[in-house]
Amino acid sequence: MWDGPNMKFTNITADEKIRIVIEDGFKIHDGHPTFNKTYTDPVPATEFAAELIKHTYRKPWSLPDMPA
User: Fold this and answer.
1) Which of 1, 33, 41, 45 could serve as a FRET partner for 18 with CA atoms 20 to 30 Å apart?
2) H-type helices in 3-65, by residue range?
3) What is the pTM of this model?
């Protein structure tokens, strides 16, 4: 759940982890689908959400400051 005025998610606990699918393998064997997904290593969900909200860019890339 998103708390807009405070710019944070309110339903993520400190012990939750998130994994992202980096490869979605799909094959059909004898008419039956099989799935072979490759995931990233688990990362803390709170850190991942914070990065989505305020992205840190690699040096020397950056965005200009927002106008006042």
Assistant:
1) 33
2) 45-53
3) 0.59
Q: Kindly report the CA angle at 35 between 47 and 17, in degrees rounded to 5?
A: 15
Residue 68's Cβ-count burial label (10 Å; 0-12, 13-18, 19+) is exposed
**Terminal CA-to-CA distance of the chain, rounded, Å?**
28
Give start and end residues of each alpha helix (H) in 1-68.
45-53
Each domain of the chain, given as residue ranges in start order, spans 15-68
Q: How confident is the model at residue 16 (pLDDT cuts 50, 70, 90)?
A: very high
Measured distance CA(3)–CA(53) in Å, rounded: 12
Helices H, strands E: what count in the chain?
1, 6
